[in-house]
């Protein structure tokens, strides 16, 4: 688009990215969280952190993009790249604990719950960074809050690589003024003209998409007839207390397990994957939580598992979403932990087969044809009426596993001690468990709606024992399983 002498960079949002905007309501926030725990030791002051981020804006293109709606919702919105950001709005400072005492990880988790409970403003680039000082041991936490429309887990990983070591040996220059601009937003006429042109090009893809969808559905039918048995959302999901209409409030908790421990246990069970171990550990923790709350669903809980659709070896993306979902059992109706793991592994393999038959990109491609205004209006009405409480949830919980950095990293000279991440909740699903690995650790982050699941910290405390019960050959030690696993 070029309707004037100077214009900002403009890019049409994909229907899939825009879908995260349409799904957002006053009680459903579609942002993700990334939490970096830094061993600062005065190596990374707030001012140095801000200067380092400004010095890296060119390497962080999503941080300069804001959403501009198309008049009348005739097509998906556009991204407009701004060359200047409002630093006080986007980068905020917090003190954990009091002036005379250090803050704990629990204090940080409570603050993160508050940060997660408020939406991002659409009239600015969709992100915030919260610099949280005062943690015990002189540590600093940086909480990144980014709308899912900007980036999925894989893209966030690539962005993280461009944030680490934000300060070189030389003092970074704050380059905010370099980006100063008087560019105006695109005119309504320009937005409409290009919306129609993009929609016409889109329609040319429809015949091929219909053919691929027909082949995919036919492949799914064949796979199920051949024995591929995976749960069907809504039909196979039991009712539990943390499935229902969301409120705006969020609570947050973490637990860390050694990556070597998960890998060692995986080798004890033929044919299972590391992701199967993650699902089985989540299942064991949920079984304990359900029993403590006297909930006994008649069938197993189901997991919605986001999966990346990026091709293996693809160049890292710095934005956008290439993700689909598969649905599998958590086998919470199986008492024996080994049999539970086996059921999860077998069902997840079938779910992957069905997902592959349908085609990983089908959902993304069809989302291009989502009508923006009607879809967003329907979602808002569904949320306003609290309709998620009227029927069984599509599935029980979101469980995601994203490989994180394999090597130790630093930010502004401060060692990155730990890294956590969690995605958003969707209406009807009051729990998200996201796992990010960092070097030798598997960091589980739990985001919940406290009006549906009031004690997410208690649920997090069950994960170490849930992993230990999968261990067929526990090391000889006088320690209890919970002591052997850092939490």
Main attributes of the structure:
Chloramphenicol Acetyltransferase; lipid biosynthesis; six-stranded mixed beta sheet; 15 strands; acyltransferase; alpha+beta; O-acyltransferase_WSD1_C; transferase; 487 residues; disordered N terminus; 2 domains; disordered C terminus
CA-based gyration radius: 23 Å
Residue stretches low in confidence (pLDDT < 50, at least 5 long) are 1-7, 166-182, 480-487
CATH-assigned homologous superfamily of the largest domain: Nonribosomal peptide synthetase, condensation domain
CATH fold node name of the largest domain:
Chloramphenicol Acetyltransferase
Q: Order of SSEs, N→C?
A: EHEHEEHEHEEHHHEHHEEHHHEEEEEHHH
Instruction: Compute the number of strand runs.
Output: 15
Order of the strands making up the biggest sheet: 5-6-7-2-13-12
Structural class: alpha+beta
Task: Name the CATH architecture of the largest domain.
Answer: 2-Layer Sandwich
Head-to-tail CA distance between termini: 52 Å
Morphology = globular
Instruction: Assign a percent range to the helix content.
Output: 25-40%
Reported for the largest beta sheet, the result is: 6 strands, mixed
